[in-house]
Automatic annotation (TrEMBL):
List of catalytic residues: S233, D359, H388
Coiled coil location: none
Organism: Aquilegia coerulea (Rocky mountain columbine)
Family of this protein: Belongs to the AB hydrolase superfamily. AB hydrolase 4 family.
Positions of transmembrane segments: 24-43
Entry-linked InterPro entries: AB_hydrolase_4_sf (IPR050960), AB_hydrolase_fold (IPR029058), ABHD4 (IPR012020), Hydrolase_4 (IPR022742)
Official protein name in the record: Serine aminopeptidase S33 domain-containing protein
This protein's UniProt keywords: Membrane, Transmembrane, Transmembrane helix
GO terms for MF: monoacylglycerol lipase activity; short-chain carboxylesterase activity
Amino acid sequence: MEFPCSDCCSISELVLKAASLIPISHYLLGIWIISFICCYNFLEIHIISDFFNGFRGNPVSLTFNSSSQIYQNVVSKCSILHGRYLVTPWLASPHLQTSFLNFLGRPPKFTYKRQLFLTPDSGTIAFDWLMPSEVTRSFSHRSNAISKEDTTPIVVVIPGLMSDSDSPYIKHLAFDIARSGWNVVVSNHRGLGGVSLTSDWFYNAGWTEDVRVVVDYLHREYPKAPLFAVGTSIGANVLVKYLGEEGDNTHLAGAAAICSPWDLLVCDRFINRRLVQRFYGRAITIGLQIYARTHKSIYSRLVDWEGIQKSRSVRDFDKNATCILGKYETADTYYRNCSSAGYVKNVAVPLLCISALDDPVCTREAIPWDECRANKNIVLATTPHGGHLAFFEGITAHCLWWVRAVDEFFGILHSTPFMHKRKEVCLFRLPANWFII
């Protein structure tokens, strides 16, 4: 049935007239509601679900082998890992948490003690030490120097891709561990921490040689001090890969991997999938370009400098720089060879892995669940929320949940007989060549 054109016009006029009768405040309210819903979903905000959950947080999910002694003797005694994690309410979004950590972070104030370490290939690594005497009065009587007879545990920190000892989350970690009475040394990547590159070798996501040399040196210099290590983000990938390569042949008594990418190829696909992830990819690319410009004299001599400047993604930078410097045929070859997921099965020391399922950079899709469950030395702790390396908690966002979890895990591990057995095994290994300046 057809209506005359005049009827159509009448209907349109009626609709417009009815629309004009609606108060403009209602339209503004509708626009605000739609904008709020879009922003809420885009930023993955979860404060409404937290509210209906009574702001009790979510329980930590633990993945481990049923016959794991690490779980039975250590993790089972960790109250933090068996508790609940509640995100700071006004940071109830992985993107808000991650951004707040990188731009503000509220790091504690203290001063490191700098030591320059020269590797066998003439590369320079900046060691930044933090000792208990620097952060708490109860240890004020101690000397700032560590003797060869000192039995105080040492925690080696391996930062993320473009992070160094001044990064807020690194300072949170170092301060918390030092306050517990342990010595901390942040092993800055080559070319970071305000130190120039002194060789043609560069670090990357799979470069484990620096960790190997650093651990061997620390064991030789402080043979009676138990060694532990914490890796964050790319540093976690490097640490797990190192542990898998070494197996029993490491002086580390325990380790923790925080927000590891696990599978670099999967993470590369993930970071280019959605608009919000592309922001992170672009930010990381800009950071890599700044790093390259800082060391332009070496980069421009070894790689295509114009290609670095034109890079618009992490893959572009890796193709134009990392692959050439690391002698990888393609970016995919680099990602496959340097992913730590393939080395998980060979890890032979107690390892705590922590990841947030809403991590906006290192996707949950890359987590090697089955491999972690199969290895009796690994316990994987995951939380629904936390962002990338953030895990802020408390109304004032005064501390990071994962920092407290690692501190408790190391403390209980150090007090178990298993740790002392590992130390006896490691004493039989001769350290690699080492140099110091």
